[in-house]
Design brief:
By secondary structure, the protein is an alpha+beta fold. It has 24 helices and 28 strands. The strands form six sheets. It has a six-stranded antiparallel sheet with strand order 17-16-21-20-19-18. Strand 8 and strand 9 form a beta hairpin. Helix 17 runs antiparallel to helix 18, helix 18 crosses helix 22 and helix 19 packs parallel to helix 20. The longest helix is centred in the C-terminal third of the chain and has 61 residues. The structure holds adenosine-5'-diphosphate.
C-alpha cells in the first residue's frame, strides 16, 4: 500500500514536471499559440498577445479566433476547424492574414491540430509571424532587381571570370566602351587585347585576387575594336561560394577621357607655367588675410624675382607691402575697395628692389577665390619707359601748345558742325574771348559766308567732306559779332583728335593786308606802265622833233639853194632857151619840196587834230568802189614812168556807204605811196576790194621789201619810222601809217598788216557798211575832192624821186 502510494506520488510528481515543462515551452515559445474550442479562445500564450497587440489576457479569452483573422480567410479557417475536430491529423501549414487589435495586418503561417483540453477536444493553432520575413524578401528582390538594373546599365564594365579565368558574364557597357559584344567576350578574351606593357601587371593583379582572395586595383590599356587603346581602371574581387572561391569579378572604369584631359591639363598647365615665367610682367599670387590685408605670396614668377632681386624663398616670406613703397594708406584702401567691389583694380606705384632701386609700375590686380580663400593675382608692369615717353609726350604737347598759341595764324580743330579747339588768334578771329565760349558751337554761330563766297563755300565744304582736304583757298566771311568782312586764306586737312568723329585741322590767316598790298602793287604797276609810256612817248616826241627838223630843213634847203641858183641866173639875165629849161627844172624842184613841206605839215596838223579830238569826219554816202578806183587810177597814171605796175580789181561795181571820201583818199594815197616807195622797179602793187555784205575789205598789196615781224608791231604807232638810220634811203616822217590807222578807226574800221621780209606787204582795211541821210552834199564833196586829186598825189608822192 505504502509502496503503491509512493508510486502514485511519483507519478503525480512526474505529471507536474511535464506540465511545468510544457507550460514553460508555451510561455517562452517564439510562435503564437492559441487553443480554442470551436473558435472560442480558451488559451493564448504571451507571444499570441504580442502578435495581436493585446495587453490584457482577459481581453482575449472567450473571444472568437475569427475576430483576429482577415475576413478573406474566414471560410478556409472554418473549414480547417471542422476538419481538425473530425480527425486527429495535423493540418498542413497555411498562410493567413491576422488583424491585430490596433487593426494592423500581419502575414502568418498557421499549423493546427486537435488536442484534449479539460477533457474535451479543443483546437490548437500555432501561428508564426512571417510579416518581417516577407518584407525582407520583397526588399531583397527589389534590391536585386535594382542591382541588376544598375549593372546592366552602368557605364562601368563589370565582368565575372570563373576559376579558369574565362569570362562568364559581361555587362553590355563593354560594347559601348570597347566595341566588343557580350557574345564576343564570352567566346574568349585574348590576352593580346591587353597592351603589352600592362599584361604582366594585369595578370599578377588577378592572380593575387584569385590566390589570396584580396581585392586588387589595376590600371591597364585595352585594345578596342576600332584599333585604339583605352585606359581602364579595374577592381578585381574574389567571389566565394561558402568557403570555396568561385571566381573573380572585375569592374572597370574607362579612364581614357580623364587621362587625356589630365594630359591636356598638364600640357596647358605647363604652357601657362611657361607663360607665367616668361611674360615680361612680374606676377604675384597672394592670399588676403582676414582683414583683407595682403598676406604672403603663394606664387611669384621668375620675372618678379629677377626684377626685385629677391629669391623665391625670400619672396615667399614677404608681402607686397614690403616692396610696393608707393602704396599710401589711401591708395591701399582705394585699391582694396575696388578689388572687393569690382573684382579688379589698376593702380600705379613704385617698387623698391632689394638693392634700393625704384621702379615705376602699373599693377593690375584681380580678386580670385582659391580653395574658399580670397586671393589676389597681381600683374605688375615696369612702366619706366612708358613714363619717360609720357613725360616727353607731355612736354612736347606743351611745346606744341605754346607754338600753336604763338602762331600768327588762326588754328582750329573742328568737326563738321562743332568747334573743338581754337588758338588765341583763332578766338580773336571769331570774336570770342575764351575756348569755352567757342567750344561745341558751330562755326556758323560766329561767322557766315559772304554773299560773294556762298557758292564757293558750298563747293569747298563738299571737297573737305569727300577728300578730307582743302588746299590753300581764299575765303570771305562776315563776322557776326561786328559784321566785319573777313578775307581769309585757309587750308583744311582731316586729322585725328580725341573723339570718335571725323575731325579737321583748319589753319587760316587774315589776308586783308595781303589784298591791300596786292592792290597797291597793281596800282603801282599801272602807274609805272603809264609813266613808262609817257617817258617813251616823250622820247619818241623828242626823236620825232629831231627828225622833223631834218624833214623840214631838207626841202627848205633845197628851195633856198634853188632860189640862189635862180638869183645867179637872174643876175646874168640870160633867159636863153637853155636857161629856160634850167629855170623850169628849178621850179619843179621847188614845187616838189613845197609839196613835201605841205604833206608834212598836213600830216602834223591832222595828227594833232586827231590827238586833241578836233578832227571830224565829213561823212556822206559814196560809192566806195569808185572812190578807191579813181584814186588808184590817178596814181597809176602818176607813176607810169616808174617800172612798177599798179593793178586795181574789185568783186563788185558799186557799194554805197557812209565815208569821208577825202580821208579814204588820204588813206589810199598813203598806203599806195608806201607800197611804191618800198617796192623796187619791176615789182607790182595791187589794190583789191572785196564785198562782205555789211563790210568792205580794201587790200593794198605789194611785192616790195616787206616788213619784219618785229616792225609790224610798231608801224601803226605815232612817230615811228622803222628805218631810223640817218643813211636811210627812203624819206618819211613816220606818222603816215599812224594817221591812216586813226582815219580808219574814225570810220569805225580796222587795219592790219600781213608781211614777210623780202616778199612784200599787204595792208588790209575793213570798213563797216552804213549809210547817212544827206545825199546832196555828198555829190558836191565828191566833185570837189576829185578836182584836187592830182595835187594830192603830188603832195603824197613828194618824197618819192
Ligand atoms: P612815213 O610817213 O615816214 O612814210 P609811215 O608811217 O607811212 O611813215 O611808214 C612807217 C614805216 O613803215 C616806214 O618808214 C617803212 O619803214 C614801213 N613801211 C610802210 N609801208 C611799207 C611797205 N609797203 N613796204 C615796206 N615797208 C613799209
Amino acid at each position: 500500500m505504502e509502496k503503491a502510494f509512493i508510486l502514485e506520488n511519483n507519478i503525480d510528481q512526474r505529471h507536474r514536471e511535464i506540465e511545468e515543462r510544457y507550460k514553460k515551452i508555451l510561455l517562452l515559445s517564439s510562435d503564437a499559440i492559441f487553443i480554442h474550442n470551436n473558435g472560442e479562445i480558451v488559451y493564448a500564450n504571451p507571444r499570441a498577445y504580442k502578435l495581436l497587440e493585446i495587453e490584457n489576457k482577459k481581453e482575449i479569452l472567450s473571444r472568437s479566433i475569427l475576430e483576429f483573422i482577415h475576413p478573406d480567410w474566414h471560410e478556409i479557417v472554418n473549414e480547417r476547424i471542422r476538419l481538425t475536430r473530425e480527425s486527429d491529423e495535423n493540418m498542413p501549414i497555411v498562410e493567413e492574414v491576422f488583424i491585430t487589435s490596433t487593426g494592423k495586418e500581419k502575414i502568418v503561417e498557421v499549423t493546427a491540430s486537435s488536442i484534449p483540453y479539460d477533457g474535451e477536444r479543443h483546437n490548437l493553432i500555432i501561428v508564426k509571424d512571417v510579416s518581417e520575413n516577407r518584407k525582407m524578401k520583397a526588399f531583397n528582390k527589389e534590391k536585386e532587381d535594382m542591382l541588376r538594373l544598375v549593372t546592366e546599365n552602368t557605364h562601368d564594365l563589370i565582368a565575372m571570370l570563373n576559376k579558369d579565368l574565362h569570362i562568364t558574364y559581361a555587362t553590355p557597357s563593354h560594347f559601348s566602351v570597347l566595341g566588343y559584344s557580350t557574345e564576343e567576350l564570352l567566346e574568349g578574351f585574348s590576352i593580346e587585347l591587353v597592351h603589352s606593357g600592362d599584361r604582366e601587371n594585369l595578370i599578377a593583379g588577378i592572380n593575387r585576387t584569385r590566390g589570396d582572395g584580396v581585392n586588387a586595383c589595376i590600371q591597364w590599356r585595352c585594345l578596342c575594336k576600332d584599333g585604339r587603346y583605352k585606359h581602364l581602371e579595374s577592381y578585381a574581387k574574389p567571389i566565394y561560394n561558402g568557403e570555396i572561391l568561385e571566381g573573380v569579378v572585375i569592374s572597370s572604369r574607362d579612364l581614357t577621357e580623364r587621362i587625356e584631359a589630365e594630359k591636356a591639363l598638364k600640357k596647358s598647365e605647363n604652357k601657362y607655367r611657361s607663360l607665367f615665367n616668361n611674360v615680361n610682367d612680374s606676377i604675384y599670387l597672394y592670399r588676403l588675410r582676414d582683414n583683407d590685408v595682403p598676406g604672403h605670396f603663394i606664387e611669384v614668377n621668375d620675372v618678379a624675382c629677377a626684377r626685385l632681386g629677391y629669391s623665391r624663398e625670400e619672396l615667399s616670406n614677404m608681402t607686397v607691402l614690403d616692396f610696393n613703397v608707393g602704396l599710401t594708406m589711401d591708395k591701399i584702401n582705394a585699391t582694396k575697395e575696388k578689388l572687393l567691389t569690382k573684382g579688379q583694380a589698376i593702380h600705379r606705384s613704385l617698387n623698391r628692389t632689394k638693392y634700393g632701386k625704384y621702379i615705376p609700375v602699373e599693377v593690375n590686380s584681380i580678386l580670385m577665390i582659391i580653395n574658399n580663400e580670397k586671393c589676389v593675382l597681381s600683374i605688375c608692369r615696369d612702366i619706366t619707359e612708358r613714363e619717360e615717353i609720357e613725360r616727353e609726350l607731355r612736354e612736347s604737347k606743351e611745346r606744341y601748345k605754346q607754338l600753336i598759341e604763338a602762331l600768327p595764324y588762326a588754328v582750329y580743330i573742328r568737326t563738321l558742325d562743332r568747334m573743338l579747339f581754337g588758338n588765341k588768334a583763332g578766338l580773336e578771329y571769331l570774336g570770342v574771348s575764351s575756348i569755352e565760349e567757342m567750344k561745341s558751337k558751330s562755326w556758323t554761330e560766329f561767322t557766315i559766308p559772304h554773299p560773294s563766297y556762298v557758292e564757293q563755300f558750298e563747293r569747298n565744304l563738299e571737297q573737305i567732306v569727300t577728300e578730307g582736304y582743302l588746299p590753300l583757298t581764299e575765303e570771305r566771311y562776315i563776322r557776326l559779332s561786328d559784321n566785319k568782312i573777313l578775307n581769309m586764306e585757309t587750308i583744311v586737312t582731316r586729322c585725328s583728335y580725341d573723339i570718335d568723329e571725323v575731325t579737321y585741322l583748319v589753319v587760316t590767316r587774315d589776308i586783308a593786308d595781303k589784298k591791300k598790298a596786292e592792290e597797291l602793287e597793281r596800282y603801282m604797276e599801272e602807274k609805272t606802265k603809264q609813266l613808262d609810256e609817257v617817258v617813251e612817248y616823250e622820247k619818241l616826241r623828242t626823236e620825232f622833233f629831231a627828225n622833223i627838223s631834218h624833214e623840214l630843213r631838207t626841202p627848205v634847203n633845197v628851195i633856198f639853194s634853188t632860189i640862189q641858183l635862180l638869183n645867179l641866173n637872174l643876175a646874168s639875165m640870160d633867159l636863153s632857151l637853155g636857161n629856160k629849161e634850167k629855170f623850169k627844172k628849178h621850179m619843179i624842184i621847188m614845187k616838189q619840196n613845197c609839196h613835201r613841206l605841205i604833206r608834212l605839215i598836213n600830216n602834223l596838223i591832222d595828227v594833232s587834230r586827231i590827238d586833241t579830238g578836233f578832227f571830224n569826219l565829213c561823212l556822206s554816202n559814196n560809192n566806195i568802189i569808185s572812190v578807191v578806183e579813181d584814186i588808184t587810177l590817178s596814181i597809176a597814171e602818176y607813176i607810169e614812168n616808174k617800172e612798177i605796175s599798179l593793178l586795181f580789181d574789185t568783186d563788185i561795181e558799186e557799194k554805197y556807204m557812209a565815208c569821208d571820201p577825202d580821208m579814204i583818199e588820204r588813206i589810199m594815197l598813203n598806203l599806195i605811196s608806201n607800197a611804191v616807195k618800198f617796192t623796187d622797179g619791176g615789182g607790182g602793187v595791187f589794190v583789191n576790194i572785196y564785198d562782205k555784205d555789211d563790210k568792205v575789205v580794201i587790200s593794198v598789196k605789194d611785192t616790195g621789201i616787206g616788213i619784219s615781224e618785229e616792225k609790224q608791231k610798231v608801224i601803226f604807232e605815232r612817230f615811228i619810222q622803222v628805218d631810223k638810220s640817218l643813211t636811210r634811203n627812203r624819206e618819211g616822217s613816220g606818222i603816215g601809217l599812224s594817221l591812216v590807222k586813226s582815219l580808219v578807226e574814225l570810220h569805225e574800221g580796222t587795219i592790219e598788216v600781213i608781211s614777210k621780209t623780202g616778199e612784200g606787204s599787204e595792208f588790209i582795211i575793213e570798213l563797216p557798211v552804213r549809210l547817212v541821210e544827206d545825199r546832196v552834199e555828198i555829190l558836191e564833196t565828191q566833185r570837189l575832192a576829185a578836182q584836187a586829186n592830182i595835187e594830192k598825189i603830188d603832195i603824197e608822192f613828194s618824197d618819192i624821186y
